Amino acid sequence: MRLDKNNIRERIKDTMMDTLKMSFVENDKNTIEVIMPVGRHNCQTMDVLHGGATIALAETAAGVGSNLLCKDDEGCFGIQISANHISSAKIGEVVRAVGTPVHIGRSTHVWDVEVFSDSDNRLISKISVTNFVVPHRKK
Question: Is 105 helix (H, G, I), strand (E, B) or coil?
Fold first, then answer.
């Protein structure tokens, strides 16, 4: 089944995105937005958001964004991520990943993803994600 904006919630059930409590925000911009609450389930030992969870949020935004842009017979996979963590988010905050496509080619998509704190719009991380577009394998 192809990923589209109508089946995202169903498709992420019981995946890491569900475990990390990610939700997709609908907008009419040329971006994709994903929010995630910060809690013990995605923090490191000092009660701040784990960098790995932040990267998972960014890769989810870029990956879903690319899959929504792919043709019906294509899918995509992340092949490169570069992250700069600028600030921290504490338990009780909600973070928002805003993914913007930089390059949408036939075989690669490059995304800029910025992760903000929803409480004060503070920049948490700036992440670049490259996805590789592949044909779906026949089953």
Answer: coil
